[in-house]
Amino acid sequence: MKTLDAFHELRDALAAAEPAADDTAGGPEEDARRARTLAAVLADAHALTRLDPGLLLADLLADPRRWPEQDWENYFGNASITVIRTETLRVDVLYWLQNASTLHKHVSPGAFLALSGRRMHLEYAFDSPAPLGSGVTFGGLSTLGRTMMRDAAVSPILPTMVHELYWIEKPSVTVSIRCTPRAGTAGHGAAGQPPHRPHEFIPPGTAYLPAAFQETSNIQRWTDGLALLRRANRDLYLRTLGTALRLVDALHLLHVVDEMCDNPAEEVSDLLARADAEREDDAVARLLPSVPEFRRRKIFSRLHIGGGATQLLAALLWAGAQGGELATLLKAEKVTDPDAFVRDHGERLCARDPRVKPYVDEARRSLR
């Protein structure tokens, strides 16, 4: 199958560039070197960038006997297939129908290629006096950059990278190379210690281990139950939530704040204010600044409207771009009048979800 020939070429290029498994050292400098090397290999994989994503998926699905082992641990995207697996790395093709990723941190070096579809890519630095643990870590998130990745764009992945993406076209397609974590390096703890796990973040400065990576499913079962109770009996849900907010630890609290943001803003504020007054710690107070960020991400991660231009605006509003940066990003997409663009496509977004209006109004004010 000619589409898969490009991956045979990629395998050969990776074999020439990657050290043998026994020669793969750990440490930040080695991780950075490997990430840059893998990004360079992807950037040179010109046959890969010419592939038709639909034909590629069809050829991959035609004979699954050819697939290497497919791990549950890296089952991301709406269709995800590992095409190459060696002792030191794996190559995945990922198809994305969702709007946005979480804001997350990786545990091993690699690189990724935007095979098809534009995507907003936001990178951050997280600083905290405390190391990342199994619960909630408070610190500070600072935005390092907002960039538009177009077809054939490549980005290295370092274990220090904290980032998120918004895919504009559906589906968008990614080719990802990830190094196999080694004992004592990123992705594995020291001998006898549990492995490092991918953390997620929420501005302005909170890191946490998501429910899917907790050692137990307690939090996921709890939030699933709350979501069901909210649909079945709203009064009982609010009474239950009022009690739980006074009692749970910071990690439970963070997950439920995320779940709560589907409720009216005034209702959420009232619930959290009462919980804060009745708790003996400052967990609610420290999470309150994150409530608008949870809400904004929730709104725009679910908002899909036909037409690339309108979805482009949704991506930029999701990314929090404003003022000169917003105008620059729009002009790079050949938009000559940013204010008119935000006005016209903002109306389409507001017609789909009225909660978008404050974000559109804020973006227009920032352009004046």
Task: Summarize the helices and strands and which ones pair or pack.
Blueprint: H1 2-17, H2 28-43, H3 46-49, H4 53-62, E1 79-85, E2 89-96, E3 104-105, E4 110-116, E5 119-127, E6 136-138, E7 140-149, E8 154-157, E9 162-167, E10 172-179, E11 200-202, E12 206-208, H5 218-232, H6 234-247, H7 250-260, H8 265-278, H9 283-287, H10 291-302, H11 308-319, H12 323-332, H13 338-352, H14 357-367
Antiparallel strand pairs: 1-2, 2-10, 3-9, 4-8, 4-10, 5-7, 5-9, 6-12, 11-12
Helix pairs in contact: 1-2, 5-6, 5-7, 6-8, 10-11, 11-13, 12-14, 13-14
Can you walk me through this structure?
By secondary structure, the chain is an alpha+beta fold. The chain has 3 domains: 2-185, Jelly Rolls, CATH 2.60.120.10; 216-284, no CATH class; 303-367. 45% of the residues lie in helices and 19% in strands. The chain is built from 14 helices and 12 strands. The strands form 3 sheets. A 5-stranded antiparallel β-sheet has the order 1-2-10-4-8, with helices on one face. A hairpin with a 3-residue loop joins strand 11 (200-202) and strand 12. Helix 10 runs antiparallel to helix 11 (308-319). The chain starts with a helix and ends with a helix.
- What is the assigned CATH homologous superfamily of the largest domain? Jelly Rolls
Rg over CA atoms, rounded to whole Å, is: 22 Å
Average the pLDDT over all residues and give the rounded result: 90
Strand and helix order: HHHHEEEEEEEEEEEEHHHHHHHHHH
How many separate structural domains?
A: 3
